[in-house]
Amino acid sequence: MEELFVNGEPYAILSLLGRGKGGYSYLAERDGRRVVLKQIHHEPCDYYSFGDKLEAERHDYGRLTRAGIRVPQMLDVDAQNERIVKEYIEGPTVMELLRRGESAQPYLPQAREMAAQAEAAGLNIDYFPTNFVVHGRELFYIDYECNGYMDEWSFENWGVRYWSRTPELLAYLERLESQGENR
Predict the structure, then answer these.
(1) Are strands 23-30 and 146-148 parallel, antiparallel or unpaired?
(2) What pLDDT digit, counting tens, does each position of 138-173 carry?
(3) Domain residues for 46?
(4) Which sign, positive or negative, has the C-alpha torsion 86, 92, 98, 103?
(5) Which of 81, 104, 139, 148 is the most exposed place for a label (fewest CB within 10 A)?
């Protein structure tokens, strides 16, 4: 089993959870506790430009928590290795629900509440359904990415398009299938 170290402490890597614009997120374990270990990457991204990704994660985590958005707790940061450890929120992503043919409708009020909190704080979060986990009946935003508020990227003008089997979501799923991806 592979191990990655964060500030000298070993974490057993259990599986890859996903690859995002800023890094790879792994389900990891240390002392019997499951966590998410995010390894920052420096792969190019056509549609997004970054500065210091690690500092952006720390900064955005603070902005999100101050705004009252439900996010996993940041547990540790290893600046030298560009790794972040955060709380693991168990449950399906909204995307997983949609792919199984289930409805995200029960979680729309919580998504809209988060959107209102974000907007009140002058922020947009990434409303794509892979970034939201349902734990029990609560919705968590599991990414730390946030940007200054722009109406065109709000939940109602952009995000909600991907929270049901809309043409936008179906095109995305078709693109994944054609690329042989399963996320």
Answers:
(1) unpaired
(2) 999 999 999 999 999 999 999 999 999 899 999 998
(3) 3-87
(4) negative
(5) 148
